[in-house]
Amino acid sequence: MAKRSSTRKTYQAKKKSSSSSKRGKGSTRARGKRTRSKRGKGWQESLNALLNGTVWGSLLLVLALFTLLALLSPSRGSLTNWWLEELRVTFGVGIYWLPVVLAVVGIYLYLNSHEQTDSFTFPRLFGFLLVWGVLQTTIHLLAVGDQAVLPERSQAGDYGGWMGWVVGEGLRAVFGQGFAVVILALLAFGGIALMLGVGFADLGALLVTLVSAGVGFIGSLPERWRQRGSGVIRIRPSRWTRFKLWLKGLRRPRIGVPILEDEVNGPVSTLPPDPALGQPRARVEPAPPTVRIIGSQQTTWRLPRVEDILDDFGGGDLTEEDLAERARIIEETLAAFGVPVTVVEVNKGPVVTQFGLRPEYITRKVRGEEKRMKVRVSKIQALANDLSLALAAAPIRIEAPVPGRNIVGLEVPNQSVAMVSLRGILESEEFRNLKAPLRICLGQDVSGRAVAASLARMPHLLIAGATGSGKSVCVNAIICSLLFQYTPDQLRFVMVDPKRVELTGYNGIPHLIDSVVTDIEKVVGVLHWATTEMDRRYKELERAGARNIDVYNARRSAEGKSIMPYIVIIIDELADIMMMAPDDVERSLVRIAQMARATGIHLVIATQRPSVNVVTGLIKANFPSRIAFAVTSQVDSRVILDTPGAERLLGRGDMLFMRPDSAK
């Protein structure tokens, strides 16, 4: 019995333990479910808090920036066009301050998520949005007046958009136009009070104070003017006014036509003595003759005389015996190599002397028969180094053939360089017989004759060469040639000198439109001004029915009106400008070179680095007139002249001039 009872108790104990273990497992599962549900609920709350604050605020800020850039961008894509069109339909003209609204709301959400809204509270945000809504509705009501409009009109973006139409038309339908405006004013008043964080009474008192102060100030203005009327008010003139006064002072006649000798040395007229003073008055000398330009009614200019300013220089020291000796050496040297020639002419120039060679005939056997054949030009060119050795002169240049002649030109450097004076060119017959506007002096050719050209016929000039080869002297000669012929009423200059050396000395002359530009960053603006002035002149010519500036000035002069002056833009160094803004500079220069001839605007550009990056293809194509001084390589010569030759120049002021009608 005892054994059975113990067995039964053992079984019951095992059963209880098994049931308790089952209950334990069930309770463990329940606790696990409750823990997982709490963890899931906490993750969702954190995500919601993050999305409600930081993320939404950041998105609104990004959206505000995107909208602002879309409004300011000159070129838009399909996405920006769609976005702006939707905003314009919704908010109308309020689209322009919508980025501010989005940014304010985004900042509030971001600060609120970080619990940093102590000063920027929700009532302030609500007041800001309320004022914005009132502004949208007011724009709609004021734009349409008493007439109701269809929603399509508001959606077009003319008024307050869909938002203004909904609120405005709703208030108009319920309260009418007048009461709607009053309600909007009260709402705006309340919104401003919420934004400032003050009560209605304080805001009203502030408005009353501001209005009373404004009325009092306006009412006191007449009395203030009466009190100041008796005194002298000293006002400092503006910068532009001071510049005009300074320029007017420069326009006083200083140099020009001198007083004639018979007027100076002639009898001096004196006035009879004043009986009151008993002493003779100061003598009155006759005024020198003046030149008044037709069409200039307010300014009297005097052109200077060349002989009063410039000096003349003599020629070189080569004699006829020296030239004959060199001609003999040339003939003997070529004959020694089986190339017989005859020196038919000698042209003595300031830097080089040109010997005109006429190839002779040689006898050769062709198929057993003797035939006389003329010497080939290529054989003469191949003996250039031998001629240089025989003449003890380097480098020599062979021009085969001379343009328009049946001779070969051999240019030999002179032992001493003769000075070419600007006065000699200005007084030469070649310069005086040139009947064209804007005549400029270039120098002397290989025969010693003066070379002059018309900048108006070129119509633009490109000058290139190595450092110290004579570019700046050429530019100064061109400027002085024009200053001796034209007054500031007829010609104006725009000078650009990034090197700050060559052209800064011209500051102060009345021919300058502005001071010499030395800042590279201002050059693009100067060229842009030139294109704008060109367009303005074309419109003026169109209104006057004139084809070019010469016809226009002739008509204006006949009518006694002021003429349109020529404008010459001089750039001393193109390489520095092209390094700064190559695209803008090239575009402006090409446009001026292509179109500005009829308006009287001409370009003179000089550079010491004639590379393809500086003298581009477009620039070279629009500058048919070019001057090449000595360069370092044949490549540079081809860039300037499209042909070799400039690399063999001496570099002592000698140059190659390519006219606009030249074949080379």
List the main descriptive attributes of the protein structure presented here:
Threonyl-tRNA Synthetase, Chain A, domain 2, 14 strands, Rossmann fold, elongated, six-stranded mixed beta sheet, single chain, alpha/beta, 664 residues, 3 domains
State the separation between the terminal residues, measured CA to CA. Answer: 142 Å
Q: Structural class, from secondary structure content?
A: alpha/beta
Uncertain residue ranges: 1-40, 229-236, 250-298
Quick one: overall form? elongated
Number of domains: 3
Overall mean pLDDT? 76
CATH topology of the largest domain: Rossmann fold
Proportion in helices: 40-55%
Strand content: 5-15%
Cross-sheet strand order for the largest sheet: 10-11-12-9-13-14
Number of helices: 22
DSSP E strands, number: 14
**What is the name of the CATH superfamily of the largest domain?**
P-loop containing nucleotide triphosphate hydrolases
Task: Describe this structure as you would to a colleague.
The structure is a single chain. The protein is of the alpha/beta class. It has three domains: 46-201, no CATH class; 320-413, 2-Layer Sandwich (Threonyl-tRNA Synthetase, Chain A, domain 2), CATH 3.30.980; 422-658, Rossmann fold, CATH 3.40.50.300. It contains 22 helices and 14 strands. The protein has helices spanning 2-72, 78-91, 98-113, 122-144, 151-155, 161-196, 200-229, 239-250, 261-265, 306-309, 320-336, 377-382, 384-391, 422-426, 429-432, 471-483, 523-544, 549-558, 574-580, 582-595, 617-621, 634-641, and strands at 341-348, 352-359, 361-366, 369-374, 397-399, 408-413, 439-444, 450-454, 461-464, 491-496, 566-571, 601-607, 625-628, 656-658. Helix 3 runs antiparallel to helix 4 and helix 11 (320-336) crosses helix 13. The longest helix has 71 residues, at 2-72. The chain is elongated. Mean pLDDT is 76; it is low at 1-40, 229-236 and 250-298.
